[in-house]
Amino acid sequence: MKMDQKAIATLLELAAKSLLSNEPAAIHALEELPRDLFVPLFIEAFLGGHKKIVKAMVKAWPFHCLHIGALSVQESYYEILEAMIGGLQILPDQNSSSWGPKLRILDLRQDPDCGTTCSEISTTFPFCFQSCVYSQHSILKTEEAQHNVKCLGIVNSESEPPSTQKPVELLVDLSFNGTLRTKQFLSFLQSKVEQSFGSLHLCCRDLQINKISAHKSVLQFLDLGCIDHLELNQAYLNEVTTLLAQMIHLNSISLSNISFKRCKGEDFRTFLIQLGQLHNLQELSLALFCLTDQLHKLLRILPPQLDTLCLSFCGLSNRDITVLSQSSQASHLRLLNLSNNQIFSEVYEPFQTLLEKVSGTLQYLEINNCLITDSTLSAVLPALSHCTHLRVLSFAFNPITMPLLMGLLQHLTCLMELKHVIYPVPVHCYEQWNFPGSLDRQKLAEVQAQLAAMLQVVERDDMNWTTCPE
């Protein structure tokens, strides 16, 4: 009688938990441990914070790759990551067997869609779906070069060193946030890279930097060509341009608090030239980045396939909205954030035209704190109702009345993909609109109850209407 997969998995978990109850025995047993037990044992050891076992398991890992994937721990996070890195065989071990460790790719990034290890496929090189493909120091590029050299007969057995350490790849997402523990972890990483004498390739995919002036020295040990997501807060525009010149494979950029003198200056022109070289760019977010009447210059150099555009606190004008509605990017946008721009202070027609242009693709729309009034929202409502793929709408902190809010709900319930709406507190709930401390929470509770009842009547319990009170 065959056992089902669920029952087998349960037995493996029980066996793993039993091993962890005796840490020294578990570490000693790794030499004879069946391959099927490694993954469940690692999961239990990682979640339980068993740093010594995790380190030993990395050293004895029988697969090409190891991913944290969906695993997470609240306490001792850096400690367990350092234990895993400490288990990597980045230098030749004279006491180890001749075949050396099998683990070649250690992935410390959290990804809910990634398993602990990839399915093994018979290929010339170690296979992993997450392998670095850009850097010349990556395993794929290094071993491909070595394979080609051997095929050409350039290297023979006499000239080849008898014990060459195979390259190892370490995948990470890094945040330079200035905390002491983060600095210690970065210093630990840097020392490991230096000790490896080139056999450890540190591949950072997602980099977050807060105040670049404090982290310039740390940036020097990163291979910036690997980075595909950059989030940068507080920098001079010329510093951003210097980084972009080295991060040629970026597909997502988020910049905030970037200092520059004027949009007509040399720094801005150089920035645009470099930004235009990022042909893989799909997501761009700018905040506190003055673009008044200058958006056309930015859109001119951005790739047409851009699907995310966030321009909060950018001082956008109606002219900028008109330019955006006429751009090649508009018909591809899935996410658009125009919050904290007074784009409705004069006329609404440019935004109405923009909604018509994005209606075929738009899924997320944020227009918080844009001085949207009842008359403006009523005018653009027909165009908004044609955004049939819309999933999230956020228009908080705008002076809207309760009658308009109720009418809006009735119109939007026909958008079956729309699940989340973040609406403004109606003006009647304030003694003085949007004035701190003047919100009447009893009135707000009545608003929330009335909207919930309306959703129930039209059988849209799947829609979540929430607000952002002070």
Distance between the termini: 62 Å
Element-level helix/strand string: HHHHEHEHEHEHEHEHEHEHEHEHEHEHE
- Strand order, sheet with most strands: 1-2-3-4-5-6-7-8-9-10-11-12-13
Low-confidence parts lasting 5 or more residues at pLDDT below 50? 94-99, 156-163
Largest sheet: 13 strands, parallel
The helix fraction, in percent, is 25-40%
CATH architectural name of the domain at 282-467: Alpha-Beta Horseshoe
CATH superfamily of the domain at 282-467: Ribonuclease Inhibitor
Number of strands: 13
Structure description:
- With 470 residues, the protein is an alpha/beta fold.
- Among the domains are: 12-63 and 73-89, no CATH class; 282-467, Alpha-Beta Horseshoe (Leucine-rich repeat, LRR (right-handed beta-alpha superhelix)).
- Helix content is 37%, strand content 16%.
- It is built from 16 helices and 13 strands.
- The protein has a 13-stranded parallel beta sheet with strand order 1-2-3-4-5-6-7-8-9-10-11-12-13.
- Helix 11 links the parallel strand 7 (283-287) and strand 8 (308-312).
- Helix 2 (23-29) runs parallel beside helix 4.
- The longest helix has 17 residues, at 441-457.
- The protein is globular.
- It starts with a helix and ends with a strand.
- Residues 94-99 and 156-163 have low confidence and may be disordered.
